[in-house]
Amino acid sequence: MGATRSPAVSGLPEQSYQLEHPSSEAIWKRAVEVFGSEELARKWMDTPLPILGQATPEHNSASGDAAKQREILTILGRIDYGMFS
Q1: Are 45 and 31 in contact (CB under 8 A)?
Q2: What's the Cα-to-Cα distance from 14 to each of 8, 17, 21, 36, rounded to whole Å?
Q3: Model's pTM, two decimal places?
Q4: Whole domain around residue 17: which residue ranges?
C-alpha cells in the first residue's frame, strides 16, 4: 500500500469560513497548504483543468466570481482529502 498523508493544517472552521467568504488570497493560501510548496501550487493554479472547462484555477480565482472561487476551494478540499473524482 502507498504512504498515507494527513490533510493540510487548515481546520474545518477555517475551511468553512473560506467557502462562505471566498477570495483569491484564501485560494492561494489553501493551494500552497495542499500542495506543500508555492512552486507546486503555482503549477497547479496555471494548469487548465477539464473540470473547469479547461479554465485554469488561477483564472477562476482572479475572476472575483464567488461561485467560481468556491469551486476552486472545493476542488482543493477534495485533493487534500484524497477524493479524486
Answers
A1: yes
A2: 12, 5, 10, 18
A3: 0.79
A4: 12-80
Residue-by-residue DSSP string for 26-64: HHHHHHHHHHSSHHHHHHHHTS--GGGTT--HHHHHHT-
> Is 5 domain-assigned?
no
Residue 4 lies in a domain: no
pLDDT in tens, 17-47: 777 778 999 999 999 999 999 999 999 999 9
Tell me the C-alpha distance between 53 and 16, whole Å: 25
Give the count of domains, the chain: 1
Residue found by looking up cell 472547462 in the block: 53
